[in-house]
């Protein structure tokens, strides 16, 4: 059995950020377990091909990635800044727009490929001596140790002599038979979290009965460094601006966007099957040709949408972060940013524990993390639910009110400024 202060299950963006942040601030011995190969975890997107899974990265998340010393690599590889957001209701004249100038910033955020963020994090993880990686491994059991085991003379590999982390409440069992004892187990293993299931966390969840279609689309005109979103009767459709070519090229194109189209499952299934030209025509009509006609599409994919929230983020010696703790509708592009906010808070609490010589899995540490993150996550989830229901309603009074509301808010400078600050994390 190998003993660790912290075992992180899940090496995606959130899990990698937590591992890197803790390793940069403490001497804790860390293990990362992930079912992907090391090549998959560390590989960057192709320079001439944009992945169809991207995130709208807020300025708060950029600050965290800068703190982790990975932002420079991400920005140098490929990043698409946006300076404006334009949102409108297809069933009326109501619209609202936000600009970076309103909060005295150069941009509101960036559209970044998920794999680029992950690769940059793993590039830095490779330089850390306190992290062991168990790639191509899966968690098969999470065994709560008995008091007799807890009092046995484990020898921590932690070089922090003040650490009390010889306390191992869990043994993590992997599919290859390896056993890892841990003072703290962090579940960052996504929406279908094995940690959450094995530790028997209860969740509140429901199916949206919607699927999301993602793809990369070229347009007749430029995206104007603007994130566009239209609320259709069947659900939201977002156009996220991309620089088509690697920043190594002389003139990156601004005619490409990533699209996220949310609609009932039957409609998305039908869209996935229609001929390309028919799809492009329907997409152009749905967006009212705001940036001209859609002229090319590639890398279409779809996935179901489900909301989920763990009723508690921690138990004795185990804690959840990112999609393992909560999943949210993608209409505001906040899922990844909420996960990174979880990572930032958890890193800060664990680093505080290290300075005090505490074991990282103490209840007082994990409860502070939960108190910081649960209210924000629940507020954002509630806000997205309200948007979803309001914009799907076809009742005439609701349609009138939402159009009037959008137009009214668009004229309120102070209120808009507060909304922008909240959305981008400044």
What does this molecule look like?
The chain is an alpha+beta fold and 426 residues long. It has one domain (2-424): FAD/NAD(P)-binding domain (3-Layer(bba) Sandwich). It has helices spanning 13-25, 38-42, 59-67, 71-77, 114-125, 147-150, 194-198, 265-273, 276-286, 335-356, 363-392, 396-410, 413-424, and strands spanning 2-9, 30-34, 54-58, 80-82, 84-89, 95-99, 109-113, 131-135, 139-144, 170-174, 179-187, 203-219, 226-232, 235-242, 256-264, 294-310, 314-315, 318-320, 326-327. The strands form three sheets. Strands 1, 2, 8, 9, 10, 11, 17 and 18 form an eight-stranded mixed beta sheet that branches. Helix 1 packs parallel to helix 5 (114-125), helix 1 runs parallel beside helix 10 and helix 10 (335-356) packs antiparallel against helix 11 (363-392). The protein is globular, with a radius of gyration of 23 Å. 46% of the residues are buried. The model is unreliable at 148-165 and 245-252 (pLDDT under 50).
Strand element count? 19
Per the CATH scheme, the topology name is: FAD/NAD(P)-binding domain
Rg computed from alpha carbons, rounded to a whole number of angstroms:
23 Å
Oligomer: single chain
CATH architecture assignment name: 3-Layer(bba) Sandwich
Find the CATH superfamily: FAD/NAD(P)-binding domain
What would the principal axes of the Cα set say about the shape?
A: globular
Low-confidence stretches: 148-165, 245-252
Residues in β-strands, percent: 25-35%
The total number of structural domains is 1
Query: What number is the mean pLDDT?
Result: 86
Largest sheet: 8 strands, mixed
CATH class: Alpha Beta
Number of helices: 13
Classification by helices and strands: alpha+beta
Task: Give the helix level as a range of percent.
Answer: 25-40%
End-to-end CA span: 45 Å
